[in-house]
Amino acid sequence: MMKLSNSITAILLTFSVSTFSINVFADTDLESPHTVGLNSGGGGIEYKGKGTDGEGVGVSYLYYNYQFAPSYYLEVGIAGAEDINDWECTEKSDNNWDCLSDYDNKFDLQADHFEYNAVIVALKTDLSLSKRNRLYAKVGAAFYDYRIDLDHTRIADENGTGLFLEAGWEYRWDNGFGLNTSLQHQDAGDLDIDTFNIGISYAF
What we know:
Blueprint lengths: L1 H22 L10 E14 L2 E2 L5 E13 L2 E12 L4 E6 L2 E5 L5 E2 L5 E16 L4 E18 L2 E20 L4 E12 L2 E13 L1
Antiparallel strand pairs: 1-2, 1-3, 1-12, 3-4, 4-8, 5-6, 6-7, 8-9, 9-10, 10-11, 11-12
């Protein structure tokens, strides 16, 4: 989990330096400064060092961003995540659990239900590869609220402010519609969420 977040951070810093160098003397007239989009994907969570099998969480992210300078955007969004497999846990002995998903993949998280919501405020930068292709990265804050249950008993109910990171590739047509894929990391204190996402967007 730490390696992924470090990689995304390194990509973001590289993009920021590159795009600033390329666009520092660019024309400031911006076309289609507004963008709305929706990302969906899946991955795994880690809670206090205990991780799922990596395929047990589904995420969605609805966002709006405003381009205030060439290759720089301010973004706000709403993120949500929850378990997409049926997690079944049985206690073998005191504090020793055996957990299976509906695909029979063992994992170490002692829980059978997970739900996460967050409001995201982020800075986005991109690097153009061609007329329609670009790489992008985002860094920001996630104002989160999540809960974890085990056999209908609440074992975690937390809220706070965490780190939001995303890096990906985007393709945009002349009509404003776009398609993107990305890796996303959300750090919510004791909880980490790492996912692979596919999204659509519209610039206007």
